[in-house]
Specification:
Elements lengths: L1 E5 L3 H12 L3 E5 L3 H8 L10 H10 L3 E4 L11 E4 L14 H13 L3 E6 L7 H12 L4 E6 L9 H6 L4 E4 L3 H10 L1 H5 L4 E4 L1 H32 L3 H9 L20 H14 L5 H24 L8 E5 L14 H11 L3 E5 L4 H7 L4 E2 L3 H5 L4 E4 L4 H4 L3 H7 L4 E4 L6 H6 L3 E3 L6 H11 L14 H8 L5 H4 L1
Parallel strand pairs: 1-2, 1-4, 2-3, 4-5, 5-6, 7-8, 9-10, 9-12, 10-11, 12-13, 13-14
The chain binds uridine-5'-diphosphate-glucuronic acid.
Length: 477
């Protein structure tokens, strides 16, 4: 099939490359000339495991091309997919200006007939609005508009796309449905369920899925707080409820709150849609507030672990992206954490395996380290904010020996508490008792001998001044 995908962000690039991989002829379009130039030069503008290679293979095979402008949409084009961003508008709803701009371009470039498919995450009724817009501009056009939401996760996008739990097709138009069923046949033949719904049901399904997952995370995070107060381990509780198939084990990892480009924006847009319809999604509204507060509460958790006063002390933050295997910093919990620490007077030194360049756009006044060990050297506390495999493999004894004060806060429960304690770290995680932390701090206060540590670090300002090795440091101070 011949497919045009408009938008070379996460969804557009992954979809375009994967549709090409399934044997289709795909042209991916983006109005950002730098992005198209990079793609045509063989660079992948986003970090997603396997994507660069998939793009290269399919370009070489002649199935995938990139263009700055929407080509003429002759009758040989089977589908035009809208995969542009729908960032948050000031009202909390989704900003659909890019979606409607693409719809206008389609109206201008279409020949006689066109099947438009919305892959962007758009509120209920957007398909209707796209249809009205194109039909008004081109009453002569034989037009079909369908919704085909995407459920891929950053970091595992290719596997999520090629082996999804389901494909959702929202349209009552036979031509659009047949074209989409043909497109997805390689997946459905392999056993992937395909759900055919109305356009509006498909649009809501996307938001409802993200909102439900956000609620699930928020729920386990509140249970984690309860576990800490009641001296239980949330990981036992998560497993205990997750083994109930009606609940399921996924998305029950307690942590610093959800972030990323999807859950925060989509929960907010769903709540806004409800308000526009004269009702209120109270659970979703509450989860948004609870999650937002939680991200900042993580900063206070670190301050508490450091004894309540972080003025002039150095905190090493390991991991910055909103989750591992992405370079995406949008709404990352690490940002709220760092802002609280800085406001409390701490010097913050950071390291992330892939997110440093993007982080530099979001962070001011931090020092960028070369690697995990460089990050913790001489610091008064280390915080694991994102559970990258590289960071999980750090040698805990080396970290303990390298910190000026061996306090470690594991916001992702990435490490075994016993291993942290064995390494000599006064450690705390999320949702399990702090007893060991408190006991070990008391031991320290009583002046018990502990493993030999390097001499105290120089004054943090001086230390960090020497440590600014990242290319962006000059703009950060
Ligand atoms: C999410 C959905 O999972 C995808 O299905 C959806 O397609 C995508 O949004 C989207 O709408 O485009 P993504 O934002 O890439 O995907 O990442 P997730 O893996 O869902 O993680 C989101 C946040 O939740 C991260 O901050 C992560 O650390 C956090 N999380 C996730 C937890 O705190 N606990 C968990 O158990 C799972």
């Amino acid at each position: 099939m011949r497919i045009i995908v408009v938008g070379c962000g996460y969804v557009g690039l992954v979809s375009g490359a994967c549709f090409a991989e399934l044997g289709n002829d795909v042209v991916c379009v983006d109005t950002n000339p730098a992005r198209i130039a990079a793609l045509n030069g063989g660079d992948c503008p986003i970090y997603e495991p396997g994507l660069e290679r998939l793009i290269a293979c399919n370009r070489q095979a002649g199935r995938l091309a990139f263009a700055e402008a929407l080509p003429f949409l002759g009758n040989d084009v089977d589908l035009v997919m809208i995969a542009v961003g729908t960032p948050p508008a000031r009202t909390g709803g989704a900003d659909l200006s890019s979606v409607f701009a693409v719809a206008e371009a389609i109206a201008a470039r279409a020949h006689e007939r066109v099947v438009v498919v919305t892959k962007s995450t758009v509120p209920a009724g957007t398909g209707d609005a796209i249809e009205r817009l194109i039909a008004a501009a081109r009453p002569d056009l034989d037009l079909s508009v369908a919704s085909n939401p995407e459920f891929l996760r950053e970091g595992s996008a290719l596997a999520d796309f090629l082996r999804p739990d389901r494909v959702v097709i929202g349209t009552q138009d036979a031509r659009a449905r047949n074209a989409l069923m043909r497109l997805y046949r390689p997946l459905t033949d392999a056993g992937v369920p395909l759900l055919s719904t109305t356009r509006t049901a498909a649009e809501i399904t996307k938001y409802a899925a993200n909102a439900f997952l956000a609620l699930k995370i928020t729920f386990i995070n509140e249970i984690a707080d309860l576990c800490e107060a009641a001296a239980a381990d949330v990981r036992d509780v998560a497993r205990g409820i997750g083994l109930d198939r009606r609940i399921g084990e996924d998305f029950l990892r307690a942590g610093p709150g959800y972030g990323g480009s999807c859950f925060p924006k989509d929960t907010s847009a769903l709540a806004a849609t409800a308000r526009e319809l004269g009702m209120s999604l109270r659970l979703v509204e509450e989860a948004i507030l609870v999650n937002e507060e939680r991200k900042y509460a993580m900063g206070h958790r670190v301050i508490d672990a450091m004894g309540g006063d972080v003025g002039g002390k150095t905190v090493a933050v390991l991991g910055l992206t909103f989750k591992p295997d992405t370079d995406d910093m949008r709404d990352s919990p690490a940002l709220a954490l760092i802002s609280v620490l800085q406001q409390a007077g701490a010097f913050v030194r950071v390291y992330d395996p892939q997110g440093m360049d993007n982080a530099a756009e979001f962070l001011a006044g931090v020092a960028f380290a070369r690697d995990g060990y460089d990050c913790v050297a001489g610091a008064h506390c280390a915080v694991l904010a994102t559970e990258w495999a590289e960071l999980r493999q750090l040698d805990l004894s080396r970290i303990a020996a390298s910190l000026a004060v061996p306090v470690f806060v594991d916001l992702r429960n990435a490490f075994d508490p016993a291993a942290l304690a064995d390494a000599g770290l006064m450690a705390s995680g999320i949702g399990y008792p702090m007893a060991s932390l408190i006991a070990s701090r008391k031991r320290l206060e009583l002046g018990r001998p502990r493993k030999a540590r390097p001499a105290p670090v120089p004054a943090p300002a001086e230390a960090d001044g020497n440590r600014l090795r990242h290319p962006h440091h000059a703009t950060l101070q």
